Amino acid sequence: MKYTLRNIFRYIVLILFACSFTKNVNAQTENDALMIPKNYFCAAGVYTHNSWDKYWEGTFKRENLNLGTISSDVYAIGGNYGLSNRINLLFMIPYVQSNASAGTLRGQRGVQDINLAFKWMAIKKELGTGLLSLHAIATGSIPVGNYQADFLPLAIGMRSRSIGLRGLLNYQVGRFFVAGSGQYVRKDNITIDRDSYYTTEMHYTNQVAMPNQTNFLASAGYRSLKFNAEATLTKINTIGGFDITKNNMPFPSNNMDATIAGAIFKYSLQSIAGLEFTAGGNYVLKGRNVGQNTSFFGGVYYVFAVKKDKSEN
């Protein structure tokens, strides 16, 4: 079976999602070293706002007054279940609404893709004065909404399937940590609603071969039972693809690269066990065939025991 990935802005959304738990609540994503214990579940609701009015046409940064500001609102629900203390299962389903402030193009709205992750903590050991952990994470996405992929920059996704494998290394000393990860994503062809299209040559088909991708993430921050703060730097690189041609619309198989800086803050409410709030943002520092996106997000998470672990008796 072949696989694929949606547009790169999904990764901006993905770094907001899911939860973890260490006998106290800790928000997490597929990209961090936190794990939820066996038989616990974290329910999550996250809102994200994205906007940009400048973009890179290839490496040339420009604006388009016929589009104005491109924005999107993402409403996501998801969860994280502790299959064991070392294995977590995560999912997220976003509803997306896009908009252009100028021109005649109308935005899309609808359910996008279901995103799945299998997270395994392979190694956890003391090293020097700190704790070292190594995680292997398998990810995938399956389109569930009936949206149009060939309508960038207002498309809400790529209507494509994907599978990815990430390795994550985390080292924590006291309440401070540093982490790094790398991911490779295999992408499938997508089907568009026309019988021919032009990239760097003419294609007489409705099938579009999507380039694969790599993603690298570095992060550092502070973790406590009550408050977390984290800074992130993400590098997304499309392996292949082509540049947007002059004054033309983007195309799903463009070479979409981005360097993204971000911050995540989490506060655990001590008066209600299991409840926490997360907020943060991301900004595209540099890119190729992508918008210079600014995003802000906020989330509510609640962790509870699905059943009592007999081993704790």
Short overview:
The protein is mainly beta. 2% of the residues lie in helices and 58% in strands. The N and C termini lie far apart (45 Å).
Mean pLDDT: 89
Would you list the SSEs in sequence order as H and E?
Answer: HEEEEEEEEEEEEEEEEEEEEE
Give, in spatial order, the strands making up the sheet with the most strands. 3-6-7-9-10-11-12-17-18-19-20-21
The helix content, as a percent range, equals under 10%
Summing up helix and strand content along with how strands pair, one would put the structural category as mainly beta
Oligomer: single chain
Uncertain runs with pLDDT below 50, 5 residues or more? 1-27
Share of residues in strands: over 45%
What's the N-to-C terminus distance? 45 Å
Radius of gyration: 20 Å
Largest sheet: 12 strands, antiparallel, barrel
SS elements, strand count: 21
Assign an overall shape. Answer: globular
> How many distinct helices?
1
Can you lay out the helices and strands and say which pair or pack?
Layout: H1 9-14, E1 19-21, E2 25-27, E3 40-52, E4 54-57, E5 60-63, E6 70-82, E7 87-100, E8 109-111, E9 113-127, E10 130-143, E11 162-173, E12 176-187, E13 190-191, E14 197-198, E15 202-203, E16 207-208, E17 212-223, E18 227-239, E19 257-268, E20 275-288, E21 294-305
Antiparallel strand pairs: 1-2, 3-6, 3-21, 4-5, 6-7, 7-8, 7-9, 9-10, 10-11, 11-12, 12-17, 13-16, 14-15, 17-18, 18-19, 19-20, 20-21
Characterization of this structure:
With 313 residues, this protein is an all-beta fold. Helices cover 2% and strands 58% of the residues. The chain has one helix at 9-14; strands spanning 19-21, 25-27, 40-52, 54-57, 60-63, 70-82, 87-100, 109-111, 113-127, 130-143, 162-173, 176-187, 190-191, 197-198, 202-203, 207-208, 212-223, 227-239, 257-268, 275-288, 294-305. A twelve-stranded antiparallel beta barrel has the order 3-6-7-9-10-11-12-17-18-19-20-21. A two-stranded antiparallel ribbon has the order 1-2. A two-stranded antiparallel sheet has the order 4-5. Strand 19 (257-268) and strand 20 form a beta hairpin. The longest helix has 6 residues, at 9-14. The termini are far apart.
